[in-house]
Amino acid sequence: MGLTDYAIQFIVDTDWENVPAAVQHQAKCCLMDTLGALIAGNETPVREVMTRMAKKQLCGDEATILVSGERVSVAGAVLANGFAANALDIDDGHRLVKGHPGACTLPVILAAGEMIPSCSGKAFLTALVIGYEIGIRAGLIRHALYRTYHSSGSWGAISGAAVAGKLLGLDKKRLFHAMGTAEYHAPIAPMMKGIATPSMGKDSIGWGALVAILSVLMAREGFTGITPLFDDTPESEWVENLGREYKMMNVYFKPYAACRWAQPAVVGSLKIVRENRISSRDIRDICVRTFEAATKLPCTPPENTEQAQYNLSFPVAAALIDGEVGPKQVLPPRLYNSQILDLADRVHSEVSINFEKMFPSKACAEVVIETHQGKIFNSGPVEAMWEPPDTLPSDSELEEKFHWLVDPVLGQEKTDTLAALIWDLDKMEDLSILINHCQK
Questions:
Q1: Is residue 118 domain-resident?
Q2: pLDDT level of residue 223 (50, 70, 90 thresholds)
Q3: Is the alpha carbon torsion for 64, 70, 75, 79 positive or negative?
Q4: CA distance 342 to 384
Q5: What is the extent of the structural domain holding 59?
């Protein structure tokens, strides 16, 4: 059996009952985190743009855009929900693939689930597990094959094809063609250009999700694709351990609406000011020593939310002034706050050779703050919060984050109900229940 055959067999054979209990619980945690990010992302300009696009160019009545409840085609819903899921860059990620498996997968599952009668909670969660497992491995292989750093959408299209194919009941042959077609047409987005000049394209997750659902629909009609990338892996164990090693257990979660690469700097800055009771008014200079990729994040005043998220100085300053970096900080009017921008102007970065050697397995920084009085404070080496395996958030912390993101959109009472539904989703009989609870 070839490695692609092995991956396809995993997709076909996996059901909720043969997923280990710890992985089942992790799937619910990942769903809560990504769904919270998606709902909060509906308040962003990119979601408004893509919703207009979906209604004008991809109209229909087959699937739902969350929060607004507007009905469009399956492709339209995937596009709008896909861009919303990563619009605030506060969704989960995986260190080694340097990307976001949840945001790539969830929008496709939502749309594909609406295409079938009575998609159960177990079927939904099973697809989510498959999406993470296939997606993370596709990302590992993609990064190993190409030296240029490609975005999450480049491999998320493959995981999206896997989950949609699973839900729509594609046979092995059509799953082969669906994933091959998704790989062939996936956005090979030059991620570092997106870091240097941030835009709504972000991590090309929305476009990768669109490619995924279209590839499955094309395969269902008889379209043929290339052999998916699993046979090209330099490490056969990445594929052969499907169903035995669940890589979704190693995702990290994000407490801040900012690029993960900037978050160690936020942690280090907050550590210094809280331990030493330093006022932001007393800070003369902030030096962030970190790995090279993080130093590529701009330290310029942001003009929009994407520039605020793909930034090193802004999230550090926002955290020091407001104590948090969430939707409020990276969206207008707080985005243009003079006090935050003034402090951000005092932040600069330099490459640490030691931290560069650790990346991407670890993302570390060391922050040095100098006050106007000439005092110097050093954070020591720090990592971002909520990293596996030792500092992952508790269930209550994840639910608190969910409320932080969703309460302003749906209200506390609806958010309470939605959170309870997620924890018991394997008892849900039909996906429409979940989707209805995600509307204003």
A1: yes
A2: very high
A3: negative
A4: 24
A5: 3-254+400-436
